[in-house]
Amino acid sequence: MDGIKYYLNPDVSKLFEGQVWIDAAAQVFFSLGPGFGVLLAFSSYNKFRNNVYIDALVTSSINCLTSFLAGFTVFSILGYMSCISGESIENVASEGPGLVFVVYPQALATMPGSTFWSLAFFLMLITLGLDSSFGGSEAIITALSDEFPLIGRHRKIFTACLFSFYFIFDLIMCTQAGVLFIEFANYFAASWGLLIAVMVEALTVSWIYGLDRFIENVRSMIGFKPGIFWRFCWAYASPLLLLSNIIYGFVVHRPLKPHVLCIPLLGIVQVYKASGATLFKKIIAAAQPVPIDDGAVHLSQVLKSQKEEESVML
């Protein structure tokens, strides 16, 4: 019950932190799908007279209710872990992949029938990942199929090639540095890029295409014009809120630390120094694993230099 109480008694002071609003906006985009092109792809299969007004209200309401109910599951697990570990929920809760791949498995391992629940949990993750891939890929497949009839005639082959590309490209996530690539993608693509893309989309529809023209298009589809509230949100509220989030994010943005910045620079140096007649062969040679003894010595040197750097900064 401690986790449920913690969930139902939020810290209201956090609402005055800009980062909370940035994370909330990104979460809304992930849940509802604006900015990804998925909704445009799905809506292209609707009938012209389909009532998108009702669809938008029902979908948003169900999404909010589902997220609220899912919170009970998440925080009940966190409360359970807090109880058996003796730590506070703030210390147990972790952001990002740690919650799914560390906290949840630890909680499931202590439950009766842990093998079954762990199997069901990770099977659920696989199905959710596949479902998300299907939805996101539909935007790419539909757009290219409509633009290039050749792709539309060979849709199955193109889909197989697209998912094969996903598989090959995502193999980098399975390396020891995979977590870093996930964090980079989550921070730069899923946060900053998404906010900017949605703001540009809102400005394009409201101010370049024209709000009056857009409202007339909606009226011809559903039979009535949206009210003043929706016009204000499309033209002013949404772009201004998104712009304020973006500006605040740039203001409080913390650049990479010097020892983190050296990682890509050192990678370029290693590729340059590697043996090979072509760039591809140099990359392959530089990507070879370091022997255990050499790697241990190198790691100890890196840790020693980091400690010396931190002591100098202090």
From TrEMBL:
Q: Where in the cell is it found?
A: Cell membrane
Q: Per the record, what is one GO cellular component?
A: axon
SUPFAM superfamilies for the chain: SNF-like
* GO terms for MF: dopamine:sodium symporter activity; metal ion binding
Q: Which UniProt keywords apply?
A: Cell membrane, Disulfide bond, Glycoprotein, Membrane, Metal-binding, Neurotransmitter transport, Sodium, Symport, Transmembrane, Transmembrane helix, Transport
Which Gene Ontology BP terms does the record give?
amino acid transport; dopamine uptake involved in synaptic transmission; norepinephrine transport
Q: What is this protein called?
A: Uncharacterized protein
